[in-house]
């Protein structure tokens, strides 16, 4: 998969510019995007006559049940099962909020963003102290 496909499936397009038609070809579109999982800047140039696929990004909220010593979280799904295949986020601010809130015994809900087979915790909601 080329960089442009990754940009569209795992990124947020932040800038698009178009060049004029050249002497021997089509106008070109220059795309600049930010990967939603790694925050890396991605760029690509494609003919303006080509179609672009649009990513399907889901955001799902789960209640945090546990944090393992190896950095995995245990989450409660909507149907009452557990989801145990996600790691803690790498963003330092979000990571410390999750660890601190969990250590304080708060009920926490994490938002998980998923696209193209990748998933990552992207946000946190504090729903109060555990009863």
Automatic annotation (TrEMBL):
* Name this protein carries in UniProt: Eukaryotic translation initiation factor 5A
Any single GO molecular-function term of the entry would be: translation initiation factor activity
Q: Which keywords does the record carry?
A: Hypusine, Initiation factor, Protein biosynthesis
Q: How is it modified after translation?
A: eIF-5A seems to be the only eukaryotic protein to have a hypusine residue which is a post-translational modification of a lysine by the addition of a butylamino group.
Is Translocase among this UniProt entry's keywords? no
Q: In its keyword annotation, does this UniProt entry include Protein biosynthesis?
A: yes
Identify the SUPFAM superfamilies for this entry. Answer: Nucleic acid-binding proteins, Translation proteins SH3-like domain
Q: Which family does it belong to?
A: Belongs to the eIF-5A family.
Protein's job: Translation factor that promotes translation elongation and termination, particularly upon ribosome stalling at specific amino acid sequence contexts. Binds between the exit (E) and peptidyl (P) site of the ribosome and promotes rescue of stalled ribosome: specifically required for efficient translation of polyproline-containing peptides as well as other motifs that stall the ribosome. Acts as ribosome quality control (RQC) cofactor by joining the RQC complex to facilitate peptidyl transfer during CAT tailing step.
Query: Taking every annotated instance into account, which residue ranges of this chain make up the domain Translation initiation factor 5A C-terminal?
Result: 56-125
């Amino acid at each position: 998969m080329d960089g442009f496909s990754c940009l569209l499936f795992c990124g947020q397009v932040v800038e698009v510019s178009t060049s004029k038609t050249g002497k021997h070809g089509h106008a070109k579109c220059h795309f600049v995007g930010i990967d939603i999982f790694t925050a890396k800047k991605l760029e690509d140039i494609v003919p303006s006559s080509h179609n672009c696929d649009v990513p399907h990004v889901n955001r799902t909220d789960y209640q945090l049940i546990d944090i393992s010593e190896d950095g995995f979280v245990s989450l409660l799904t909507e149907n009452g099962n557990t989801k145990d295949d996600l790691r803690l986020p790498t963003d330092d601010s979000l990571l410390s909020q999750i660890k601190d809130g969990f250590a304080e015994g708060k009920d926490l809900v994490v938002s998980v963003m998923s696209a193209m087979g990748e998933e990552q915790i992207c946000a946190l909601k504090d729903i109060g102290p555990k009863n």
